[in-house]
Amino acid sequence: MSLLALFCRVDDFWKSFAPAWQQRLLAAGARKRQRAGNLSASEIMTILIHFHQSHYRDFKAFYTQHVLAHLRSEFPDLISYSRFVDLIPSVLFPLAASLETCRGQCNGLSFVDSTKLVICHNRRIKHHRVFVGLAGRGKDSVDWFYGFKLHLVVNDQGDLLACRLTPANVDDRRPVPQMAQGLFGKLIGDKGYLSPALVASLLQQGVELLTPIRKNMKPRLVRLNDKLLLRKRVLIETIHDQLKNISQIEHSRHRSPANFLVNILAGLIAYCHQPKKPSLQVSPETLALLGR
């Protein structure tokens, strides 16, 4: 997506969202008198999302070397980097609302998985202060880590259906019932989602959870269609890889929890705006047969 198309989409959202948001703040008594800044909220959001579409690995280099140097014609009233960083938390709630408008449609086949978001090296855990009381220590298939888990649910076209952020010490199965609200058909997960109680809970919501079995478990009969679907879990793992290595949602340079959340939201929105996402590339007829 071009920068102009991105700004038009963000600006259209902001024009529809801002009046209702300001009215809600006014009714709650949280709105204060604010002076208009050089950059509008639409421009701030566009720059943040555009960073995740670029090939820069850190935002400071992106803003100082690319935005200030090459995008002055697109953003005539650019401000200094330090001032821009101060304004980032102001678009946290608009970005969260914008992400909700980017969600795809469930078509009966969904995939769920979590990925770790490391916020510091294990040697610096005792000295870390930014996320004290928020982050947790968890373990993946490789090693222990300190940070958070990002839980995603996507459909077969790679569209984002639901997402949750939890401390690293939260069980992968805990946020699944909430994320599965509004879904139907089959939900494909890995061995970390094995749970008879979770299967029964999702069945009451009209969702059938499919997971592989562990080696120490008794063999069970599995339909051929379900066995083929379990092999397609690589789809959501590819999405996690793109979010980390292209959108740069994971790094250890955060100095504010609010900016950490903004970075994740902007990265997810940038992914949702990708013209070509990872997908299974199956026809509706084949999808209907696999879903039986």
Account of the protein in words:
Strands 1, 2, 3, 4, 5 and 6 form a six-stranded mixed β-sheet that branches. The longest helix is centred in the N-terminal third of the chain and has 26 residues, at 3-28. Helix 1 (3-28) packs across helix 2 (41-53), helix 2 (41-53) crosses helix 10 (257-272) and helix 5 (92-100) runs parallel beside helix 10. The chain folds into two domains: 3-26 and 38-100, no CATH class; 109-253, Nucleotidyltransferase, domain 5. The model has no long low-confidence stretch (mean pLDDT 88). It has helices at residues 3-28, 41-53, 59-70, 81-87, 92-100, 176-179, 196-204, 224-230, 234-245, 257-272, 284-290, and strands spanning 109-118, 136-139, 144-155, 160-167, 185-188, 207-210. With 292 residues, the chain is α/β, with parallel strands linked by helices. The protein contains eleven helices and six strands.
Characteristic terms for this protein:
292 residues, Nucleotidyltransferase, domain 5, globular, 42% helix, single chain
At the fold tier of CATH, the topology name of the largest domain is: Nucleotidyltransferase, domain 5
Shape type: globular
**Low-confidence spans:** none
Q: What's the story with the biggest beta sheet?
A: 6 strands, mixed
Mean pLDDT equals 88
| Count of folded domains | 2
Give the SSE string: HHHHHEEEEHEHEHHHH
CATH architecture of the largest domain: 2-Layer Sandwich
* Termini separation: 36 Å
What fraction, in percent, of the residue positions are helical?
40-55%
CATH class of the largest domain: Alpha Beta
Structural class based on helices, strands and sheet pairing: alpha/beta
* Percent range for β-strand residues: 5-15%
| Spatial extent as radius of gyration | 21 Å
Count of discrete alpha- or pi-helical segments spanning 4 or more residues: 11
